[in-house]
Amino acid sequence: MGNSYAGPLKTARFEELLRNSIEASLRSSSLAPRPVFSQLYLEAEQQLAALEGGSRADNEEEEEGEAGLEPSCPPNPYQMHPPPEGCCTTDGFCQAGKDLRLVSISSEPIDVPAGFLLVGAKSPSLPDHLLVCAVDKRFLPDDNGHNALLGFSGNCVGCGKKGFCYFTEFSNHINLKLTTQPKKQKHLKYYLVRNAQGALTKGPLICWRGSEFRGRQANPSPCSSALFPPLDSSGPLAAFSGEPTPGTNPSIPVGAQPAGPAPDHPSLTAAAGPAVLNGKDSPKQQQLVKSKLSAVPRPSALGILSNSGPPKKRHKGWSPESPSAADGGYPQGGGNRAKYESVGVACMPQVGLVEPASVTFPVVASGEPVSVPDNLLKICKAKPVIFKGHGNFPYLCGNLNDVVVSPLLYTCYQNSQSISRAYEQYGASTIQPISEEMQLLLTVYYLVQLAADQVPLMEDLEQIFLRSWRESHLTEIRQYQQAPPQPFPPAPGAVAPVTSAQLPWLAGLAASSCNDSVHVIECTYSLAEGLSEMFRLLVEGKLAKTNYVVIICACRSAAIDSCIAVTGKYQARILSESLLTPAEYQKEVNYELVTGKVDSLGAFFSTLCPEGDIDILLDKFHQENQGHISSSLTASSVTKSASLDIGVAPVCTSYNLEAPHIRPFQLAVAQKLLSHVCSIADSSTQNLDLGSFEKVDFLICIPPSEVTYRQTLFHVWHSGVLLELGLDKEHVTKQRVEQYVLKLDAEAQARFKSFLQSSSQNPHTLFILIHDHAHWDLLSSTVHNLCSQSDPSVGLVDRLLNCRELKEAPNIVTLHVTSFPYALQTQRTLISPYNEIHWPASYSNGTDLYPENKKYFGLSEFIESTLSGHSLPLLRYDSSFEAMVTALGKRFPRLHSAVIRTFVLVQHYAAAMMAVRGLSQMKKYTSVETLEITQNLLNSPKQCPCGHGLMVLLRVPCSPLAAVAYERLAHVRARLALEQHFEIILGNPSAGITVGKHFVKQLKMWQKIEDAEWRPQTYLELEGLPCILIFSGMDPHGESLPRSLRYCDLRLINSSCLVRTALEQELGLAAYFVSSEIPLEKGPRNEGLESDAEKPSSTDNEEEEPVTEGSTSEKRSPVKRERPRSRDSASSCRSSKASSSALCGETSAQPGGPLPGEQARSPTPCGPSEEGRAPGDKQRLRASQGPPPVISRHSPGLASQPDSSLKTSQRSVQVSVPSSSQLSSSGSSSLPTVPAAGTLALQASQCSMTKACQQPPVVFLPKLVYDMVTSTDSSGLPKAASLLPSHSVMWASSFRPLLSKTMTSTEQSLYYRQWTVPRPSHMDYGNRTEGRVDSFHPRRLLLSGPPQVGKTGAYLQFLSILSRMLIRLTEVDVYDEGEINADLREEADWHYVQLGDPWPDLELFRKLPFDYIIHDPKYEDASLICSHHQHVKSEDRGPPRRPEELHVRRPTARMRLSKYAAYNTYHHCEQCHQYMGFHPRYQLYESTLHAFAFSYSMLGEEIQLHFIIPKSKEHHFVFSQPGGQLESMRLPLVTDKSQEYIKSPTFTPTTGRHEHGLFNLYHAMDGASHLHVLVVKEYEMPIYKKYWPNHIMLVLPSIFNSAGVGAAHFLIKELSYHNLELERNRQEELGIKPQDIWPFIVISDDSCVMWNVVDVDGGGERSREFSWSERNVSLKYIMQHIEAAPNITHYALIGLRKWSSKTGSREVREPFSRCHVHDFIVLNVDLTQNVQYNQNRFLCDDVDFNLRVHSAGLLLCRFNRFSVMKKQIAVGGHRSFHITSKVSDSPVAIVPAQYICAPDSKHPFLAAPAQLLLEKFLQQHSHRFFPLSLRNQGHPVLLVDCYLNLGSQISVCYVSSRPHSLNISCSDFMFSGLLLYLCDSFVGAGFLKKFHFLKGATLCVICQDRNSLRQTVVRLELEDEWQFRLRDEFQTANAKEDRPLFFLTGRHI
Length: 1949
Description:
Helix 9 runs antiparallel to helix 13 (436-448), helix 11 runs parallel beside helix 14 (458-482) and helix 13 (436-448) packs parallel to helix 15. The N and C termini lie far apart (118 Å). The chain contains 56 helices and 57 strands. It is globular. With 1949 residues, the chain is an alpha/beta fold.
């Protein structure tokens, strides 16, 4: 037939299938059997792998190359049959003469038989045209190039001729005129589709495979970035494929995660093999498997086509891929079995509704009304729930109370029809939504596979629709990703996959095998007849086995009408109750209680007991025992109380109340909170100015629960936070604490108002508003305004926390704290994702991040306990309780199930109490679980000498029911005389705790409380009290429970309203901290097992031995283990002696099942299970599963060792390996290997409190919730986590990906932010238009963490450290060092005696001698400079300090920042906002780069500097024209007297301190105008510009990148002098004298933080009583004072004293000194024109410059009454120079002795400037060059023209060689050494001969190179007096290219 197909046929398989096909066709009268080739090639793996690998581009290439192989090989000789005589042979027409060209007939109606597709054929003679043909789609491939039948079947659309069976014949008929053998693959090119106008257009390429497949396999197109990943393992149908697939592309990585938005979705069809439903094999598995493929439309470009007529036999009729092909022909090879995702489902309430649907929801209706039968509820025993589906819904009339109508399904359908934005980019016309028919069909399939105890979940349905839609459109999406869109995209939705006429038939077919669980009713005219029919069948009892009725009306041509009625009693009850809002639920329960409807329930209970009514039995018991109570319980209790009265206090070591303390986790979270607050402050948005706050205040808002309120007060009280914050100056009282905790009730508004007032009145206080339990009450205040003026609490949180005053207050930060943040993470939330803080994980990569002695045990650990092989899991359900509830639900259909459940449970507790008190016949009327709880409750006080017991939490959400339960249990307790044995406490949110006097007395004694008035106010204070706590309230409000909580009975939680928040909130009650320090051997035997004495029976210790069974062990994957078959009483019971026979019956009812305590754990064929592994393997296995679960030790066969210690810190699983015989035994023996007596004795007297810290409580759940919590999806995520997150939000789209278990909290937050929107009633509903980033509130944070993990302690700790930080922010560490060498001060005859002078008197000042001594404490290690006045002993100076000690040990003082401080980049305030250069719109100021060049002869070249000048600072400069060449920097006049600005430009050289340098002088200058220039190195310019965008930068040339501070000082001074000359020239033209231009500049360190002035008491200035005080002033004050000095231009250098707390009267008595100045200098660049800084210097360059200036005869003046404070900055500055080895990268420390070496040696070279090495070496090791000078002050080293620091042990004498310079008289000195450093021509031989040297004195000559060294020796005639040796030559340890310095040393002769 001319067709080739990829993939060889397997002969045997082919024959088998052919035989089967023939047999099936002979038998079948209605269904066409699947064609043979379809069975051979319909392989799932191929489908998706090809989709991922096959590229659109391949098809296009084929199209362009037209003939594929033709160009490269000669055409096959092919002889066409001659056309019949007289027929048409025109190209584009058929032989009958009809036009077939697409352009001609695109708009004409074409009759296409069912099962046929229109395709376009290419004719070689008409390359520009497509010919239209109708071809049977079975002979065409799917989108993967597979599944096309060999052969051909087609019709001519022109003449209408049908039945062409050969493509050769057909190609002749349509005049293709081929020269090669006709092949359909080559010539049938395109699908044809109708566009929006109904015209036929060219559609997608037909995806033929064959000759091009090999090339494709070799070069697969990378599709890993496709929008949709492979679905599940290898494809949607992989489950059915047991064999390798022919033609699959092996190079495509299956399961690769795409970059697109949708993560892996388990496919709808992943339910291979036996689907496990609720832990049981589903009876519907066969139907499920059959119907799987039909549930998912094939991913074809045109969807699924089908006939409209009934199916016929053989090829021509029924399309094999249509959704009805539900015969058993699919191969069910089960190698890859996946669990269907909707196991354990429960109903999903309120999807997509604005408000939860009411029972009487108004429905859109049309047509005839339908009457609801009167006695419907009575007959059906449940209210049917009717879900409106598609189309119109009729009116209902009559008995409307007996039906519930809901639009949930309609909403679900609508959501699934709306295409998500993620797919809109592909064009809405291209990708059609899933059709209504397909939706309904998928719904039927979904309902069919639900088990009898499951309830449909709308979210499951949405996911099914999504997967189906994705799979059917995968191809188009892929094509659109790989190729640009075509101008006319194909419209694949032009033909519906299923026609409405076929729909009822297909639905009926799908429902045919489900044993009447789903019933389909087809209507002819409207839904009304179907509903009437359904009501009739219900009344007649014909739908008794039917859970769902699907009613379809396909009469309308355009659309269908449908609805689905839930008639199953169980499902209908749960669904109808789930549609009630919490308020309606309470109203309904109240109504039933008030009207006495529950009486019938009580009457029924009384008939159950053959011995008579329970109350009668109780009264009888009471009378019998009254007056002579002799029970063992009472006796023991009396004995105990007697012993207490005598005063012999019994001791229990287990009872120790922990003192509150901060755990490492809490501290870590507090620090994270602090860093988030700091990041808000540091951001450029100016939303929080931390620098402006002086203290912290706070208010904690909590829900209106009295217990939570008292609990929070307790935490605040014990945290000490009030004292820490300084909020309570006087004695802290508990009443005072109450001011800081606000209960959000009716009185809250007034207190909140006062809080807001306080915040506005105290702008310098930072207020932290903590909204604890923040997920509670998210109702919008608009709801309050609209509907409930009467109830002030509605929308209260919104009214308070979202009010305008709070949002706008700049000093309030709001912190929302919650365990369930989901409702605050929507598309419209006010909280930025960057402001979320999530509780950290304890483990990261296997390391314990925060070691603690307690480990948190939360929801995930509880779930883990059901999987990890515990003999008794911590999560359980009670099957006998559930069975009784179900039975009573059918008997009392009008009662709400919450009422029934409560009454049954109370009855169980009552019966259990009676059984424990000796009425053993009552054991039959309780469940084993309840009996265990009650027995342990009553027995636990007997185990402890002090009577400590355990707490049972009984959760009854509905308050009226809780009151009923309380009264009933209290009555039973009283009749049984148990009032003294345990307390029953009713926990109501609105009220406090009431505890009986007897128990209060016990608690006071245990807790050693003296206060006579004390009463417990929180549940935590009930520690050790044996009690039942009946916990009511619709939601828990954050109440913490004591460690003595042993049982958490949640069997009454509202299981129908399942949302994630509600579910996790309930389970959070059991969250617990377990001790992680218990040695494994001593742990308790079993988590739920109290001691044997407490067990109902010790006869049979089945829990103690894990019994392995071979016969019924299930196959389990080694990674994901199945949990034991159930966790109900049958499998985990502990029978009492009285009821052991009944329970044995229960056990024996499970033939071949495990013993009641255990499930099989033997290794299985698919790999060893966890229990059979060695410890290391098991650890690896756990590691592969993600976070390690809580480990319990399991020793098969060694029952003597205690089980399950729950030692969570024990990350490696310790397994005691038993003997091989025990391991290999199949567990045939059911007896324990070790008798239980030992364990009984071991634990007989153990207090229940001992176990309390070692094991979490046992939690009992409703079955529905249990299934929801314990079932997981493919990623291991619990089903419950993918529920709607909260009642107050809804999904943004049903086209959303699934949550994944691997998601972090942050990723979950981003998921919810993308995929949930608030309902209109949510307070965030009106927040913002989507996409606006700035709509987040900047001062709002969200802290989320698991329940009971310690969030309160964390945020209270945060308040403390925030307060400390604020205090720290307002303080600064400044150097606090007294002046050094104070005793060596020049004792001159002349002092500046005019102590009151504000400025120095020039004439007086000239007479002052210059003080050569350095007094600055930072130079403590510098060489002393001698002058002829000093007579110093060497011992006056201490031993030298190591250089690293200098910074560490310099003393500092912490000072409060004044308002005149200089700041670094972290300071933000409104005043200096503009100064810092942050524009109000948060864009950086523009700045321009200007080059500025000047020549300098000493450098021998022109110096090119760059200025970066912000636009706002350009007025300080002169330009040739606006924006032109920079000419000069403006300078003022000497005569200017303005107080508005500072005349001297300030230059600050800086390196490495872009963040920490104090460059913000706005406050220091008190707002005065000033010119401030930062001098930075070229490589640091970008970072400085980023942090200081509004500062002028002077960028040093790149040659100075490695230079020291000397270079910066040198260039500042030279630039300033050059600028002075330019300004003189410029202003001279304006008539101003050159000497009138201001010649001063300021050179300031980058660490000057504050400035002070000394005020002297004028009265005592001449007397001995000299008094003075120091105060902080602005830099503006100091500068303007100095600049106003008379004769100021006669001074060369002016400086300030360095501040010290040790400053005495002596230092400030004289107002002015002539001495060295440092750190902050005012420099006269005019006078110092000829004195330069040494540009090579790194250290002491200021001392060197001071000496040069003085020797030049210029005046240096220090204002002693002014001081500067220098901040300690630990980064940058001279410390940023690190000396490292140039060659090796090893971080070996290099010592200063290695800084020099002999020339030409192999010494390792160093990566550091030569000058730095020289200075550092001389500072540490100059004694090597000057041995005579060491500690020889009388004989200093002579330094010529340059001061170098030779270390503190060597004194020096400085002389200048310049003519006319001032030098000290050296005639008295005999020098011990001479240092000549780069001496110039002024130093001559004659100059040196003036000085006298000791014999043996040493000389050191330093030059740039060896040549200069020799020339200097010759020029200075040094060899006359000094002796040199060859070995005395050295160099700095630099490579040649780094230009080392060379030394020559010699000895004086």
